[in-house]
Amino acid sequence: MSQDVAIRVEGIGKRYSLYSRPQDRLKEFFTRHFGKVYGHEFVALSDISFTVYKGQSLGIIGRNGSGKSTLLQIIAGTLQPSVGTVEVNGRVAALLELGSGFKSEFTGRENVYMNAALLGLSKREIDQRFDDIAAFADIGEFMDQQVKTYSSGMLVRVAFAVQVAVEPEILIIDEALSVGDIFFQQKCMKRMRQLREKGTTLLFVSHDTSSIRDLCGHVVYLRKGEAAFIGESRIGIMQYYREVGQPEEAFPEISIPDLCTHSCLNDNALLERFKSKSYWMLDADTPFRKANDFSLLGVAILDAARQPTTSVRMTDSVFFQVLFRANKGGKSYASITLQNKFGHRVTTVGSFSQNEFAPYLNSDCLYIFEICMRMMFEQGQYTFAASITKAGGRPNRATKGDQTPWLGPLTITWDYEKDWAPFIGMFGPPVEMKYISIEEDCGQV
User: Fold this and answer.
1) CA 343, CA 8: separation in Å to the nearest integer?
2) Per-residue pLDDT, 173
3) Which of 14, 145, 329, 386 could pair covalently with 44 via S-S, beta carbons 3.0-4.6 A apart?
4) Domains in the chain, number
């Protein structure tokens, strides 16, 4: 194998024999010399070939049952192909399932030492890296509890922390990160980008095409065990969407509701009313917030029916409501920032960007700032933060004020296999479209 090649897959195929009853397998074993067949063959993979060079990132996409996990298991060496060959050049770390290789009776600490040793680290090296592994997993005292007491999210935290701690030459991940919460996913994505920049080769299976697009320059699109596409990730993802969509359905109308700011009457019941519909209340008595002109108290997300929610369908409209106290009289700007699971800022929108600000706010009064926003962002989980600043200053520059920590997650859903998507990509801008007849409007062409 060339020194620049990390993985070479040539003519891989995997077949299974399926039986209606367990005893049919035994009967076929004893009568195979007579040509008796009691089962039928299932082809999981057929004639898959590709090459991954060192430092490249390859995503594998496809519907459930298309052979993605089977292919990764063959590359990782945990499954043997029926035909074909696989060559791997480099130290491999693979996270193929939750807690891959973990022993349920052992503690998290014991599993860390055992798995890190299997990945080639000496005890001294593990001792040196254990604190970093524990900090990355961030499960606290559970590190010394038996793994059988772990939730699936805790399990994947420890498993991933071990895999990336060895800084492998080849990292293979099969959908496992979808279990962790969004804050952990953001940390994992950042770590994988760091490894990629250092030259680690990445193989990544996910139904989340946004993750594939962010991490991988190329994809293998599997359809019923065959390679329907091998090449640039952008083109492969587009082909995948075209094939799983429903073209007979019309595109929904795309429009963005107006941005709006509202102040509420100051009354003694406002705070309690807001608490009843808010998932995120903040400690407004911190020295930092008390020193500001305005103090943020809480954030609520409401659906179109004005009911609290943390999950909406793509294209739905939601209301972000931000409760704050005016510590001093004056005018303010307020905004909402959305961040995707990769830690990328998707948008910041608010009264400042719209060149609007609230009317004069009285000191020691409570107010609500509200933004109505249509969720024209791809499906996935998002964190968000609210900020409020003193009005004034240059365009797109605000005076530093109060800002919430990252809150969430807000989940945006869409079934790409059943519903025709209104856009493909990270977000859908407001558009107007029409066909122009050359005969009727030749003067405009």
Assistant:
1) 32
2) 85
3) 14
4) 2
Any domain includes 221: yes
- What pLDDT does 19 receive? 65
Report the mean per-residue pLDDT for the chain.
Answer: 79
CATH number reported for the structural domain that contains residue 313 in this entry: 2.70.50.60
**CA-CA distance, 107 to 144, in Å (whole number)?**
5
Q: What distances in angstroms separate CA 67 from CA 43, 83, 217, 334, 406, one per listed residue?
A: 9, 15, 21, 48, 37
Question: What is the span of the domain harbouring residue 208?
Answer: 5-244
213 in the same domain as 84: yes
Confidence of residue 87 (pLDDT cuts 50, 70, 90): very high
Residue 313 counted as domain residue = yes
pLDDT of residue 253: 37
What are residue 332's DSSP bridge partners? 390
**pLDDT by residue (tens digit) across 227-253?**
999 998 878 887 887 676 533 333 333
Give, in order, the Cα–Cα distances in Å from 119 to each of 124, 171, 218: 14, 12, 27
Structure tokens at 383: 């964190």
Q: What are phi and psi of 340, to 5 degrees?
A: -85, 180
Residue 306 contacts by C-beta under 8 Å, 6 or more apart in sequence? 319
